[in-house]
Each structure stands twice: as structure tokens, then as C-alpha cells.
Design goal:
With 161 residues, this protein is an alpha+beta fold. The protein has a six-stranded antiparallel β-sheet with strand order 3-2-1-6-5-4, sandwiched between helices. The chain has a single domain, classed as GAF domain (Beta-Lactamase).
């Protein structure tokens, strides 16, 4: 596939349904994890225009910033800290309608208003998280959760099955 994205309009579900096959085509046959994470982050940001989209990768006892699209961000996050660290600790997706209301929220940018974090789980272990921030309150819902979990589940995470 050419590295061009077809940006669609319509309902949120329709946008995801158009984007997912394109992400699969971009990553199919590519064995480099970082390359795939970078293209997934870019595709999501391009389609939805969110403020920040990126991956954090578990390294020892921290989440370390991986490929992302958006302004500079926190480099390392401890388990249980903020939305990303909480998603890692609980091994579950967390949707935050207003980040100021989340206990212990890490404010990498005051422009972030809502957030969704999806854990990447391989062999019953969280190996990373997909973190998405919006500059709009209450941006994310169960539709986002469903399709983002599908995208995260399709990533061939090197060294994990």
C-alpha cells in the first residue's frame, strides 16, 4: 500500500471501519515494532485530529515514551501514576472525560482535556499502552474503546505473542 491515508468522514464507527484496514495494510509485512507504532500513531492522529496520540512501552518498572504524534510529552511514567500508569497497573482501558478530575493526573500539557488509554497486553502482561489526548472534554466513548482495542490487539509486538 502506498503510504497515503484516505481520510473519511461520517460517524465515528464509520471512520474507524475505514481506517482499520488501512492500518493493517500499513503494518502488514513490516516486522519493526517502532515503525509500526509510528505509523499507527500517525494514522490515528491524521484521521481524528486528536491533540496527542502515542505509545508508551514498558521497560523494567516504567513506561517509556515510544512513537507519538503531537507536542513533547512525559518521558517516563511509573506504574499506577496518572492515567497511563493506572491503565498499566489495572490492565484495562481507562476513559477520562475531564483529566482535571482524574486523581493523580500527569499534566504533560494544560491543553489536554480528555484522555483514553488502552493497554497492550501480550501473554497476560501489559507491554505498553496507547495514550490518546484530546483538547476537547468528553471526547472518548465506548466506540473509541472498541475500535482502539481492536487496533492495539492487531499489533505484532516483537518478542510477545
Amino acid at each position: 500500500m502506498a503510504e497515503d491515508l484516505i481520510i473519511t468522514t461520517g460517524s465515528k464507527a464509520e471512520q474507524y471501519q475505514s481506517l482499520i484496514p488501512q492500518i493493517k495494510a500499513l503494518t502488514e509485512g513490516e516486522t519493526d515494532l517502532i515503525a509500526n507504532l509510528a505509523n499507527i500513531a500517525a494514522a490515528l492522529k491524521e484521521q481524528f485530529g486528536w491533540f496527542w496520540v502515542g505509545f508508551y512501552i514498558v521497560k523494567a518498572d516504567e513506561l517509556v515514551i515510544g512513537p507519538f504524534q503531537g507536542p513533547v510529552a512525559c518521558t517516563r511514567i511509573r506504574k499506577g501514576r496518572g492515567v497511563c500508569g493506572s491503565s498499566w497497573e489495572k490492565a484495562e482501558t481507562i476513559i477520562v472525560p475531564d483529566v482535571e478530575q482524574f486523581p493523580g493526573h500527569i499534566a504533560c500539557s494544560s491543553l489536554s482535556k480528555s484522555e483514553i488509554v488502552i493497554p497492550v497486553i501480550r501473554n497476560n502482561t501489559v507491554v505498553g499502552v496507547l495514550d490518546i489526548d484530546s483538547s476537547t472534554y468528553d471526547q472518548f466513548d465506548s466506540t473509541d474503546q472498541r475500535y482502539l482495542e481492536e487496533i492495539v490487539g492487531s499489533i505484532r509486538w516483537q518478542g510477545y505473542k
